[in-house]
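Weekly structure sync, notes
Attendees: PL (lead), two postdocs, one rotation student
Agenda item 3: pending single-chain targets
PL asked that the sequence for the first pending target be pasted directly into the notes so everyone works from the same version. It is reproduced below exactly as submitted, 539 residues in total.
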Amino acid sequence: NLASELQSSLGLIETITGFLKIKHSFALVSLSFFKNLKLIRGDSMVDGNYTLYVLDNQNLQQLWDWSHHVLSIPVGKMYFAFNPKLCLAEIYRMEEVTGTKGRQNKAEINPRTNGDRASCEYGDGDIRQLRGPLPEPCHPSTGKTQTLRFISNVTESDRIFLKWERYRPPEYRDLLSFIVYYKESPFQNVSEYVGQDACGAQSWNVLDVELPLSSEQAPGVALLNLRPWTQYAIFVRAITLTTAEEGRNYGAQSEVVYIRTMPAGKGLARGPGMPVVAPQRRAETPRVRPAPTVPRDVISMSNSSSHIVVRWKPPTQRNGNITYYLVLWQQLAEDMELYVNDYCHKGLKLPTSSADTRFGDGDGPEVEQDAEERCCPCRPADGQLRMEGEAESFQKKFENFLHNSIIIPRTPKRRRDVVAVTSAANASSAEPPVPSRPGGEPKPDFQIFEDKVVRDRAVLSRLRHFTEYRIDIHACNHAAHTVGCSAATFVFARTMPELQADNIPGNVTWEPASKNSVLLRWEEPRNPNGLILKYEIKY
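Predicted structure, written out during the meeting:
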């Protein structure tokens, strides 16, 4: 998208010390990508005269949105020529805002080559929301142009039917057709230029509408294949024959209005007393009311040993008004495969419960890497490669431990025995014996909890410390009682460890085992942080 790329590169510029020259830029529709430009100082000028020079831009239609933008040009002139879609009113408005009015002559703002292929001087650019019945048709204005007014609309879940007043230019044969522009607009803040370039990227959908056969019939259109419960921005423009002669440049265009389609499965919606403008068509089989698609981009974090915070984004296709989200969570059993490793000699890398980095504030740019991190790494030795391979294999087992949803029971153990052999070392480790797993032993049946939330986040509380949970989120719209909610999107999350949970309760007892060894016994922690995989003894 050219407009967004230009804004990303040039949108922070506030002052141009010299001049601004826009020349032969076919793809430009607006200069609003200079979002923060406040001053063109004119220390140097084009041909020694022009601080702003705009020449031969075939698709340029808007300079800036002057209701939200202020620009100053303290010295120098402006030059506009061969911009066929740039209306003179836009240029004259810029003269007033920038303080350059009276500096330019007619040759420097040529009325014959600016706006000669556009329907100019229509309306005042206001943007309204369409609510209830559309306004009554207005009478043709006494000026060169006219603001088109909609006279009726009918809305379904996947289509919108519109009618607008019949535009009557002074020369009726000059009216050729109408063009309807429409696009999805979640917010009511668009104009016909925002995010648009002449290459068509992210531009409006365009639909040509022929003139009705009868001169008394109001023109209309059916916008089809729309998405249910989605707001659309719409405006209509009349296409007329124009000439370069002054006084014959007529045109008409509507304001931008907003219409939301009906939820999936609903019938027609229209304002009181408005005629139905839907074309005659054969009876159709009732459409199935679809459920929403799945919620997107689920992320989670644990901020304590008993809480997990979950966030997500709304579904891509809501197919109606999302009334609530259904959140379900269930504790997962620990993986028995973790017992097969020799933790006493290989060490133990515990799973983490840190917050997802996307929980941070904003979407700021990533921190640039240090120069040292950008250097090529040294080639590791063979022994190091072997150790890294073993560590990688070990880490994969832990990933399975974190993400495996298969429930495997663990036989409870209440006591642990170990023989510590006296040697030159002063530390030792002991592995607990692998619990038995009889073939007929049933899997633990953890309770499933659920909650209904209306926002795109949930806080799960009263959870067990250092325990993995599977969390499912369903989106439910107005038709959930008949078609059900969406399929589930899920995420795995682990609570943080409890600080005192791994302490040994009671005392350690011992008895002689031989001349150079003793037998130690202790109680297992009553509610440890996850699996007990090894004990470390220091002496």
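Discussion points:
- Residues 122-143, 271-286, 361-375, 405-425 have pLDDT under 50 and may be disordered.
- The two ends are 68 Å apart (CA to CA).
Action: rotation student to compare against the earlier draft before next sync.
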